[in-house]
């Protein structure tokens, strides 16, 4: 095992095996996860990848250092579903000329993106390092970062794309090993395609890179006329913009393997002439609700916000951290059945853990190694939670188990109220300690220092550069 691997093993959809993870550059571990299309409230199925890859982000930061991980999660703010929603919500204003479609679209996407940010913050997720919006990566950029039009141009130049019937299409037959991720071959796809609909395509599996817009639709000027990008090309552009042509981890839900991720790979590899787009492809499993596929027609379609703020699910509101734990109690690659019982179980578990963690005034400096090991085994959250339950059993007033548990819960994104610090009391304690030091009562002075440390307050002694007097400052350590 090389030093860079840090013992982390991840299941790679590309090879269908669990592999040692060795970053391309351990000083900058790079991960891309497909983000939301912002036309409606995010549903709880959307919450799963956000939570799962948040845990991976936290683990990578733990293993490689906070400054050495770049996590990009995009926002898709150009999509025909968004246009439809803008027409539905602002149709009258658009018809009367009060609002242009583009302005209506901006209202829909901004409101939805704000809501998404609020929702995922409630779920205890860290913000990604960068959150690019697709509309900002359509045209060539002043900063020279990758953009969609330039990528499409390069695909045409290299013989991987063609213009037909007012569209630019990717030529799947131009890529001999197209289909590696989903393990589909072109013949299989052709057998299932509706040829009549796709008469302008060279092969039925060819997909849209660019399509023309009507004057009312959102559009950008391009060498192929005023139009808008297909969905897949945006992730190829935004990942290249921030992570380069080849990066470490690409994640998303299982439903994205085909066609979205397959087509991202095709575009990126053919445009850049690389063997791979990302080394490791990770996919979280499907989510069901009370044993059934979530769908609007079944009436079991729930947004994150509905679970947080209404009593629509189980007759009560659910705290974000309960949703978070419930989501993580099932291994990320397994299908999950989201149910009221599961949420109740998560809430009980969390209550026990928190009660035990509260026995420690401050979190330990080190995370429990057994938990880190479990997470390093392809995010074995269930095994990691067994470690937490064991620590909770061993926890007692002020002991190491309680402090370790507190550190573990904070690391995993659960709020265990870090030591509440009363600044006035600290200043009094520091003044008292300085008096004791002046009186050479070292034992009593140290006792005060240790008491503060147990509350998570670390003292630093220094000298005033002018008077030469002893000066004590403090900071909160977690
Ligand atoms: Zn994507």
Automatic annotation (TrEMBL):
Subcellular location: Cytoplasm
Domain tRNA synthetases class I catalytic: 21-347
Known EC number: 6.1.1.16
Cofactor detail note: Binds 1 zinc ion per subunit.
GO cellular component assignments: cytosol
UniProt signal peptide: none
Main location group: cytoplasm
GO BP, one annotated term: cysteinyl-tRNA aminoacylation
Residues at which ATP binds: 296
Catalysed reactions listed for this entry: tRNA(Cys) + L-cysteine + ATP = L-cysteinyl-tRNA(Cys) + AMP + diphosphate
Domain Cysteinyl-tRNA ligase anticodon binding, first and last residues per copy: 425-464
A GO term for molecular function: ATP binding
Gene3D superfamilies listed in its UniProt record: HUPs (3.40.50.620)
One of the Pfam families matching this protein, by short name: CysS_C
EC category: ligase
Quaternary state and interactors: Monomer.
Family statement: Belongs to the class-I aminoacyl-tRNA synthetase family.
Record-given protein name: Cysteine--tRNA ligase
Species assigned in the record: Mesorhizobium sanjuanii
């Amino acid at each position: 095992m090389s030093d860079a691997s840090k013992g982390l093993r991840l299941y790679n959809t590309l090879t269908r095996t669990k592999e040692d993870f060795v970053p391309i550059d351990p000083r900058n571990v790079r991960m891309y996860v497909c983000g939301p299309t912002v036309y409606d409230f995010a549903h709880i199925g959307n919450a799963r990848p956000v939570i799962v890859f948040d845990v991976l982000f936290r683990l990578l930061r733990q293993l490689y250092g906070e400054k050495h991980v770049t996590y990009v999660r995009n926002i898709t703010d150009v999509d025909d579903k968004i246009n439809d929603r803008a027409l539905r919500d602002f149709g009258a204003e658009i018809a009367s000329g009060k609002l242009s479609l583009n302005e209506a679209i901006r209202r829909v996407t901004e409101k939805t993106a704000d809501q998404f940010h609020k929702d995922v913050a409630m779920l205890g997720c860290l913000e990604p390092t960068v959150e690019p919006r697709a509309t900002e990566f359509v045209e060539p950029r002043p900063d020279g970062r990758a953009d969609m039009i330039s990528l499409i141009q390069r695909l045409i130049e290299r013989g991987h794309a063609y213009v037909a019937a007012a569209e630019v299409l990717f030529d799947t037959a131009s890529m001999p090993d197209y289909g590696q991720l989903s393990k589909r071959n072109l013949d299989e796809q052709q057998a299932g395609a509706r040829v009549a609909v796709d008469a302008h395509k060279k092969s039925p599996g060819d997909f849209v890179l660019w399509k023309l817009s009507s004057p009312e639709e959102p559009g950008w000027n391009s060498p192929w006329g005023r139009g808008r990008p297909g969905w897949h090309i945006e992730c190829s552009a935004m990942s290249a913009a921030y992570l380069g042509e080849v990066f470490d981890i690409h994640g998303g839900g299982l439903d994205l393997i085909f066609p979205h991720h397959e087509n991202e790979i095709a575009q990126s590899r053919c445009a850049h002439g690389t063997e791979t787009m990302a080394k490791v492809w990770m996919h979280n499993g499907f989510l069901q609700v009370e044993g059934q596929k979530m769908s609007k027609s079944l009436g079991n379609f729930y947004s994150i916000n509905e679970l947080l703020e209404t009593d629509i699910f189980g007759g009560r509101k659910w705290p974000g951290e309960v949703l978070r734990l419930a989501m993580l109690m099932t291994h990320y690659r397994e299908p999950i059945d989201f149910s009221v019982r599961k949420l109740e179980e998560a809430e009980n578990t969390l209550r026990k853990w928190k009660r035990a963690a509260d026995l420690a005034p401050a979190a330990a400096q080190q995370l429990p190694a057994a938990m880190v090991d479990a997470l390093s085994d392809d995010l074995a959250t269930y095994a990691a939670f067994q470690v937490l339950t064991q620590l909770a059993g061993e926890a007692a007033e002020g002991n190491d188990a309680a402090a370790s548990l507190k550190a573990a819960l904070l690391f995993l994104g659960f709020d265990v109220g870090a030591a509440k610090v009363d600044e006035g009391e600290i200043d009094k304690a520091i003044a008292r300690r300085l008096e004791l030091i002046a009186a050479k009562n070292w034992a009593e002075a140290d006792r005060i220092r240790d008491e503060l440390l147990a509350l998570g307050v670390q003292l630093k002694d220094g000298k005033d550069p002018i008077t030469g007097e002893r000066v004590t400052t403090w900071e909160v350590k977690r």
